[in-house]
Design goal:
By secondary structure, the chain is α/β, with parallel strands linked by helices. Helix content is 18%, strand content 37%. A four-stranded mixed sheet has the order 1-4-3-2, with helices on one face. It is globular, with a radius of gyration of 14 Å.
């Protein structure tokens, strides 16, 4: 029935700022873009950042949390720190494993979890 996840759409108020964070700082490749949206390949999941349109795309930052797996959390946080991105919380080591919380330019939570 279903073959794969086509994309996950989230809302942003500033496409340039979203592009700087997701492409320039995190290093994800652009799949496609135009004046109303930006789609990136975030580890085999396409994230589509859309401007609010009052219909499907509501207020920015009201979207779900985005979780990304990394091989080495400490090394990833160090590399991101060199790019100006600091963890908003963590790193933590608990029953969920090792993880940290980032915030994207719209205040959306991005959780980094270490493969384990």
């Amino acid at each position: 029935m279903f073959e794969e996840c086509a994309f996950i759409a989230v809302t942003t108020t500033d496409l340039a700022q979203a592009k700087r964070f997701w492409v320039g700082l995190l290093g994800f490749a652009i799949v496609r873009e135009d004046e109303n949206y930006l789609m990136v390949d975030a580890g085999r999941v396409r994230l589509c950042f859309d401007l609010p349109d009052g219909a499907e795309h509501q207020q920015s930052g009201s979207d779900p949390v985005i979780g990304l797996k990394v091989k080495d959390l400490d090394a990833t946080l160090e590399a991101l720190s060199c790019r100006g991105i600091r963890a908003a919380a963590g790193p933590f080591a608990d029953h969920h494993g090792k993880w940290a919380k980032l915030l994207d330019p719209d205040g959306r939570t991005v959780i980094l979890t270490e493969r384990g």
